[in-house]
Model the fold of this input.
Amino acid sequence: MKREDKGRGVFTRRVLLLGAGQLGVFGLLARRLYQVQVVEGARYATLARHNRISERLIAPLRGRLFDRSGVVLAGNLANWRALLIADQTPDIGATLDAFSSLIPLDQRERERILRELGRQRRFIPVLVEKSLDWQQMATLEVHAPDLPGILIDVGNTRVYPLAETMAHVVGYVAPPSQEEVAADPALALPGTRVGRAATEKFCEPTLRGEPGVAQLEVNAVGRVIREVSREDGVPGADIGLCIHSELQKLVAARLQNLSASAVVLDCRNGEVLAMVSSPSFDPNLFITGVSPEQWRSWNEDPLAPLTNKAVAGLYAPGSTFKPVVAMAGLEAHAVTLTEHINCPGYIDIGTSRFHCWKQGGHGPLDLRGAIKNSCDVYFYEVARRLGMDPMAAMAKRFGLGVPLGIELPEARTGFVPTREWWTAKGHTWNLGDTVVHGIGQGFLQLPPLALAVMVARVATGRAVLPHLVRTIGGTLQRGAHPEDWPSLDLTDRYLRAVREGMWEVVNAPGGTATIARLPLPGVQMAGKTGSAQVLHVTSAQYRHGFDSAKLPWKLRPHALFVAFAPANAPRYALSVVVEHGNAGPTVAGPLARDIMTDVLVLDPANAAAAASPAASPAGSGA
Amino acid sequence: MSVLDRRLLRETSLGLAHKLWRVSWLYVLLLCLLAGVGFAALYSVSGGSLTPYAGKHALRFAVSLVVMLAIAFTDIRFIARLSWLAYAGSLALLVLVLRIGHVGKGAERWIDIAGVQWQPSEMMKIALVMALAAYFRKATWERMGDPLFLLPPALMVAAPVALILKEPNLGTAVIVAAVGAAVFLAAGIRWWKVGLMLGLIGIAAPIGYAHLHAYQRARITTFLHPERDPLGAGYNIIQSKIALGAGGLWGQGFLHGTQGNLDFLPEKQTDFIFSMLAEEFGYVGSLAVLGLLALIVGGALAMALGCRHRYGRLLAVGIGMNFFMYVFVNVAMVTGAIPVGGVPLPLVSQGGSAMLMVMVGFGLLMSAWVHRDADFGDEPPSGV
Done:
């Protein structure tokens, strides 16, 4: 009995000990719960609220671009898009297979989707197909049970209705880079695009707008239960451009199959009515994604379709520079309106002999006659009398070699040399260097836009600057009125004489570009031809009857033409450059004639604001 | 004890009516209350709906209760004879599950029997208690001092622990070892041997850690630094603590828990159901549930003390310890006190086979209680 008692006693003691231990553990658990629930409760309760409410940015609608009469150049198209949330499908591969059996996905797309899914958290949606039409959307909805994880959503994509015609003016948008996202987190929103070229890029701050904020109640996998509050962002402002899209189309048609560019300005206020660079590209391709092959072919194309030659192409102005030299000579009293300079076909400067384009020479010519005949010897002589720097100064007054403020990031200023620049490089400036600039060759490098500004300034005597933006958010911007532009303070009768010379180029018998005479009754055009040499031609070659038309295409000179019209009351300024177009008058002249005819028939400056862009509802798409 | 009871003491079997009388209905009520808590929690998990969890839970509990009572009415001496068979069968299933079991969350744990998924480790917990009780029931105090006598039962514990570790399921292996240790302790193992074992574990633990699976080590490191990977491995613990804290003292109210209803709580119908309850009913609710769990553990020990035969006593201690370990691991896990172990809260968490096994255990406990005065005839009077 005693032994049994001992055994029993041990068991009882140990069970009680075990029970006490277990009770102690329960006590510890209760204390732990007290700590987490009561002591730290408030902190965790705050965390719980944060858990529940997720703030999401709402992408602002990007501002649209219109032409001057309200035609959409860059719009937003509301479209359905398909997203995939990895967390909501048991098998991503199977979902994508099922998806592509309804809407084909190529291998490249599939790889992109898988790559993005791998990068993102599993509950962040990834874009599968960015533009679904109604039919495709309906198909996906019907098959929704077979497509776990696929979400259909409404988004906005950029659309460029005029495609190639407006590409160089409007530009295009593309997804933001990693660095841009790091600088501005609002750009991380799915579907956000930033301007990558032309106006889209230059006006990015205006077009982008401010993102809105939505407070969403979400569950642990990020799925939205309901929207708690919503603060819509500020959509980007719509911008009305000076461009006249009908004229733009006509000019583009004229330049088709050429490597060329043309700029039409309203010469009273500098509004860019048309700006065409040929060949062009379709900016809509950037929206759907440019294939590497396409990108390579654009970049390797010798005709450089991605380059806006009107602002980024630099050419020696050639004889189109002569009006500037004439004005410089007149204003400096180096030459008078009545003085005749004899052209024997050449001029000897120092030890070199400089030839006129016309073998045998023009004989004695006054200023008007020199412009009309584009006499090289006359302008060699004027340049010799002037020196380089007064010519350069006058060029800058006419808008050459200075920043023009055009709203295109691609725009290049070009270059007008000075003696100082050349000597700073350790060279000696010779008189020969001066005189070649008298006929627009040498170091002069200018974009066609600057030549159009020059001719606009010659035509009006005002310091107009070219600009594309006409209205922002429906408000007319400064610069639309001629009075907004200061006078150049040049002697009026000198300017008139230069204009008369340019009128004679086109309209007087024996002018160098009578081929460019307008086929319109009662309206005449004044202009100046030019040709920019690509190859240096020696005087020996001239003597042996050099013919540039026999050169390989790449080595032929560029053909230039600048013009304004109507000649008696200038309204429109034009510059045309045909790359490797050979002699100015025969190629660029007829082009200028045809374009100016189109301009005068349409009269785009007076078609202004027929319809205000602000009148159409924002976000109504293309 | 009444005269009638004393007379029955020598009887070999009891009538059904008498057995009904001897069932501890209070204990059954406690179990029903706990299952009721589970029902309410699962009702709230599904946003105030019987589907998909709460209705099934009630049905499963009803079935399990019938099974429990059926076992309770089965003679404890008959059950004792099945101990070795149960142990052998469970061990065989543990071996089998390593070969053909399903992979669930990186561990091979499940096996299909009759269309239901079973965890052989759950069966083993019960079977080990039965087998150890059967081994030790004839042990005298003197024999308990013989190391050679203790070797076979030690191996009986070690074999399933090793197999479960290989699955790998650290949490369950620890529970099985703890249950075995409790039975050893109750059987009268000498204290110095207990000290020796603890010392050996202290040496073995660092070596064992080196052999842990990467995911098990990740659990331990994220337990130590949960904020390091808030959306990864540490997510569960952080979300659970947020839910507990959101409950505060009085709770958000039934069906008003934000974290659970919005799916922030992971596995809220299984492992983290306690967090769900704690958010809705606050610290007060947590304490009430904890108290109920403590009563069930204490009840098992009380039955152990009231049982006259050693098989029943040891069985009751083991079953009680098993339930206690479930509760401890689960609650400590959801409060972030120990690494996440994948152990449900018995009778509260959703899950059919686990609930059935727990109720089978309580059936055995109740059988020991109903037949507390049964005479095995061959137990030494000096046994522990």
